[in-house]
Predict the 3D structure of the following.
Amino acid sequence: MSFFKKFFSKKKKEDLDKGLEKTKTGIFSKITKAVAGKSTVDEAFLDDLEEILVASDVGVDTTVKIIDRLEARVKQDKYINTAELNTILKDEINRLLSENNTEGLEDFTIPAFTKPYVILVVGVNGVGKTTTIGKLAHQYREQGLKVVLGAADTFRAAAVDQLGIWAKRADTDFFSKGMYTDPAAVAFETVNYAIENDMDVAIIDTAGRLHNKINLMKELSKIKNSINKKMDGAPHEVLLVLDATTGQNAFEQCEKFSEATDVTALALTKLDGTAKGGVAIGISDQFKIPIKYIGVGEGMDHLQVFNKKAFVDSLFD
């Protein structure tokens, strides 16, 4: 059994295909129309393809890079049908994602010998941050890991309560000091709780206000320093949650949070609700931050570990 088949089940593939249906229709059907009747991939088609990729929120810079690579590939041969073109596109996009460290994990696992594994989750309000935390916690629990959720988003109405509901749903521990408390103190004490209670994973929520960059940097730096005081080397992961439906706005969010803190991984949510799934390719290319998780539906199991081969296959098969 191949690595891909072993770790990417039929159910996950079906969920992914369904979740990317709108993006696939937006890209694949337009490419099919653009190439119809052509015997070669010519300049006119490449111009059409450029428009299709930009409209799918791949981003201008990344689109130009893909087109340049395609031009280099087609100079030597003539590709007369969509299937051959798709093969080249898939190959080039896979290479692009590999170059940007987006290789994907086998499953929802944590590194060995790091306990508790501390994840700091950042992102603006409304992107599905709390939901992603809950679903991620659920997946870790499915692996038999002990998890605590820390409520450091203490100034948004109902944020603490929402995280508490997800903790119950995912069957995890929950740490909170209530509303209007110092987020850095909550983060510190969440890690302390995780250590004292032999937790495997601590996931800490943060405020989603995209206020000016200086305040954002100060707040996130204070939280990170507080965590590191309690556990040297933590947080081990800073996960930025982005909403795929916002398209180019997700690029702006990624830029601001990358400047404010050392983002180490991305979670891209709501792919099932948009035709702008190409944003995954562009963000990976432009920011060189690996996409770790994608959300392809509302169910608890609809948060998936990002598998670049499955993702690209789903778009172009």
In short: Residues 1-7 have pLDDT under 50 and may be disordered. Strands lie at 117-122, 147-151, 173-175, 201-205, 237-243, 265-269, 291-295, 303-305. Residues 39 and 81 are 7 Å apart (CA to CA).
